[in-house]
Amino acid sequence: MANVKTTPEQWARAREYYEAGLLLKDIAERTKITVSSVWKKANAENWPKAKENGEKKKLIVDAVAVQAAKSILTPVELSVHNEIVEERTRHVLFFNHAALQNVREAMNLGCETQQDHKLRSDTIAKAREVVLGPQDKPTTAIQINNNSVSLEDLLKDL
Fold first, then answer.
1. How far is CA 40 from CA 8, 20, 33, 131, 138, in A?
2. Global pTM exceeds 0.90
């Protein structure tokens, strides 16, 4: 592979393969980048390995499980499944975007009174729940009191 310029897309794909846990020789075959070049760049840029990147690894495992489950569906079942998944994905993306936009707007508002601070805080908390899902840990004194969480339980997480 003398004097062949590696494109940014090839490097991006190599990094994704690396982070997904593929062997260097497999990455080289798929991207046409030499094993030594991938190894050097991965070390120089501290690419996380699959075992350090649990979220991407879990995403791949989950996708394989979904594909396997979908393989037994009839064409009609598969079509309905895909339609519902696409619709719900659009809804999630819309609400995530709206929640983040609300946080941006709340952060740009001036807070002159305690009520202003409370409204900003509530907006941010609601947006966090939309984007990240409900949190197990209480975030306010009222929630702490309602959940009867002991002081020791709260301090052990700090």
1. 16, 18, 11, 37, 45
2. no
